Structure formats: C-alpha cells, structure tokens
What we know:
Blueprint: E1 3-7, H1 13-26, H2 37-45, E2 52-58, E3 61-73, E4 78-88, H3 97-111, E5 116-119, H4 126-135, H5 150-158
Parallel strand pairs: 4-5
Antiparallel strand pairs: 1-2, 2-3, 3-4
Amino acid sequence: MSLLLRDATRADLPLVLHFIRALAEYEKLSHEVHADEATLATFLFEEPRRAEALIARWNEEPVGFAVWYYSFSTFLGRPSLYVEDVFVNPEARGRGIGKAIFAHLASRALAQGCGRMEWSVLDWNAPSIAFYRSLGAKPRAGWTLQQLTGEALNALAARQG
C-alpha cells in the first residue's frame, strides 16, 4: 500500500472540485459551494496565486486533497500557513492519510518560514477535533472567526469613498 501526495495541476481541477463538494456534503454545507473549475483555475494556477492544492493518492487512486494559503502574523512577524480544507474519502480514513497531509503541510510551512499553521473546524465535528488534538493542535482560546460575505461584504465595500 502506498501513499503519494503531490501538488495539484490544472488537469486535477475536476478532482479538486469533486473533493470540495464531498467535503461540503460531509459538513452539511453543500448549499454554500459556488466554486467552479474556471474560478479554481484562476486562483490556484494563475498569477498571483491565491491558494495551493495537493492531491492524495492511495495505490494510485485519488482519496483526498488539501487547499491552503499563506497569511501573515504581525505579532510573529512571519507568515502563517492557513489550511482552508483537508478531506479524505471516508472509506480511505484510518490509514494515516490525513496525518500525512498535515505533516506535509507542516513541512511546507517551515520551509516557507512560517511561524504557525492554522485552520478552522466546525464545533460539532468531534472526530476531526479529536484527530487535530492527536496532532498536537489546540484551539485558540478567546478567539472566534468573523466573516463578511454576500450583501454585508458588498455593503461595506460600497461605503468606501
């Protein structure tokens, strides 16, 4: 049994979109998926790249993916690697694939001079939270994620001027 983690290519766009939809279904958020291959191509492969992706293959079959990007911590004075999504097909779980993906991303983070890796997890997702704890991850106490989307984002942008 062999695992291969490799950077996604343009040819992988249908597969990346498939995994995004599978993750959204698992998280009961399918109604929030608006991504399409053209949009993903723009932000994953055209300059300036806004995110990166990898494909996990087990015995040459695609079984998972990850998408991440770099942000910046003013307090650390260093970049951070933000893991947007990681997904492993349910039937492929328990083989160390998720752990290998996170280890791979940690290695990339260090190679890029990052001071930390971060991600969000839904509060009801106990299996993922337990998995993250097994990696040594801890919640960021006292912080909650804030978000502007849709009409609120448009309304705030319209106030500029």
